[in-house]
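The instructor's notes for this session suggest beginning with a concrete chain rather than abstract definitions. Hand out the sequence below and ask the class to guess, before any prediction is shown, which regions might be ordered.
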Amino acid sequence: MPEPLLQLDLPGFRKLKSGKVREVFDLGDRLLFVATDRISAFDCVMPNGIPRKGEVLTRISYFWFAQTAAFQANHLLSQADDPLPPELQPFVAQLARRCMIVKKAKPLAIECVVRGYLAGSGWKEYRERQTVCGIKLPAGLRESSELPEPIFTPATKAESGHDENISFDEAAKLVGTVIAEEARAASLKIYNYARAYARECGIIIADTKFEFGLHEGKLLLIDEVLTPDSSRFWPADQYQAGRSQASFDKQFVRDYLETLDWNKTPPAPALPPEVVAKTQAKYLEAYQRLTGKSL
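After discussion, reveal the predicted structure:
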């Protein structure tokens, strides 16, 4: 198994941001997004990563950007198999298959979450108040139940710790009503398209988180799209409402961590080799199922 890429610096290029997974560099009139192999759980980055994870996230994002480009503009300036520009060629070993060159869009101050099934924080709120982000839902739903129709449940962006679910009205106050309505419509359209596509591939996309940005006054889909990190992917043939589901995302890592005597604050424990290997296999299988190709 190759060594995971956990840290990245590109001499001569200014790093603008280092997130839980992504590094963003300034290329002048463009940005370079690089997905590392870091993995986080419970808002903590694990000390060891998942080899090739960044490659999977990037290639899945390229796939969905291409699938949705006909009805949703995005920030891509490069395509999946384009050669790197000359100034980045010295770093091809680190960047190959895990980077995107994109427009300099200004990200919206909200996360655009769409839920088609009742899971995670939505299930917790429903049990307490029969709502999700203040949206009233029918009585009698169970964990992992499919919702009558997908719902848009925005969240604030947290630099550290958890994003916080907010109402649509609160989102509109943050980004403006017109932009919030445009982002909601775009999020639901992309999700409904992707959910139908993935279902044919044996994957249920239970929920997902989109990022949008503004560039020259236009709303663009940015960052990563419908990956195992930004979505809950469930194997359709194992789905059963009333319980938690098997998944293609990092839930496997979370489940392992729940067996430990760890208080879910840094420093996080290292993942054992078997957990790393099984997690990598899940990411690679998600890519293969969606695209019909192997990495």
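Then share the key points. The chain is about 30% helix and 25% strand. The first strand starts at residue 15 and ends at 18.
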